[in-house]
Amino acid sequence: MDASSNGVGPLGYSQTLFQSLAFSAGWDPVKGPGSSCLADDASGQCVLPWAGGTKQVSSIVLIANGLSFMFMTLIFTTVGSAADYGSFGRWLLLVVTLICWAAQFASVALVGPERWPVAMALFMLGFITYGATLVFYAALFPRLARNTPHSRELRRKLENGEITPEKFETEESLEKNRISNISTAHSNIGYLFVLLLDLSILLPLMGNPRVNNYTIVLTNAYWVITGIWWFIFQQPRPGPPLPKGEHYFTIGWKQIWSACRQYKQLPYTFVYLFSFFLLADGLNTTGTLVSIIQNEKVHFSFLTNTYYGIAQAVTSTLSTYGFWLIQKHFKINTKAMFVVTNIATVLIPLWGMLGLWTTKIGFHHTWEFWLYNVFFGIFQAPYYSFSQTMMAELTPPGFDNMFFGLFGLSNRASSMIGPNVIQAIIDDTGNNWMGFPFLFALCAAASLVIWFGVDVQKGRRDAVAFALARRPTASSIEARKHENDLDRESEGGHLKVA
User: Fold this and answer.
1) What is the pLDDT of residues 439-460, one digit of tens each?
2) In order of start, what are the domains of the chain with their CATH numbers?
3) DSSP classification of residue 10
4) Could you tell me the CA-to-CA distances from 195 to 36, 190, 389, 390 in Å, in that order?
């Protein structure tokens, strides 16, 4: 909860501060060097020196995002799987959290346009480590979800023949969704609290030139004060010992390669990972592009962005609980709920694309950003919740960090394609809105693959069979408890391993 509550720091405020300093340091390419991008008669374009030439500030912000995602990918592929062994994951999470905290506190020194390169470096460092914390926190989810009192009771009833395998799958899936939705809702409550707390600085110090820096420090201090207790009081949940002859920094690559070679055994898991890679790439890049446009429209105001964030946090909290109650009442499966949120995901870049042909809509007016943040809150908080539950459904028991590392690569670290393509388009055209058609096509194509190409029920059985074959130890005891049921014929709804 504390990590996701403070996305307002590494993801929101830090990018706004970096973009603001870069915009102040740049010049209008229409009027030439020495002109101001902030002038009343500015063309709307803004460039900075870059690699022997110039580049649009929007493109530089997208490059920073793309590089951050590239480094996240390196982290997840190198040490993601290693977190499944021993206590390595516990210490890895502590290290990346401390680095993120340090980067955020260092932001207090970012004053003056000339410091935009430092702002870029600190934004990237904070963004990379923040993304890593979310992935490794999320990797704890399947293990915790399988060991709630209700989940254990369901397994007992299944073993004793008191419930059918179909009933067990439905109820266990709902239990995972309950935990995921509650976690997402709580994180948004924390997000709302942080934003309200930030108003205690933003309003009274409105004219102070360092008010933005102080706001980031306060946001980060909240995370430190509330988050440090996890590392002090967390219960040890070590995985199996590292295999003899292996190393923490090489086993990840070996396991990922090994897992990819076994894609035929986990077809739906890998179809989901690949399609979600593209979907997350499209959504994350869309969010970055909208925030770039939003920052320029509100003149990089932390206060206005905080109000937008409050609207998003309130609607996110209400919608997460609302989606969960609807799912629970009607017993709707995870994929169906995820499909609903995917439709909303596709509509966001579509709306931006309309701004190419008209200035009446398409992220040209302040009211549209209010609408965007409310819409995002209603549909995208459940999107993250259901996407995580989908991954938990398709993850082999005992391989949680390994597959959630791949999921993190698909989610947080996927956006290497989008930012690089969009920044090239914007740099070539000088028009931020030209990036939306590509993002719309990317989100739409990925959504269609998930809707029609992922069978969660079959994928879940494949995952259990994979765990039994690869690691028949105590870490996959849940899988072994399903073994007899998985061997039954599919007639009458019973399960069978293909």
Assistant:
1) 999 999 999 999 999 999 899 8
2) 2-34+42-232+246-493 (1.20.1250.20)
3) I
4) 31, 9, 27, 30
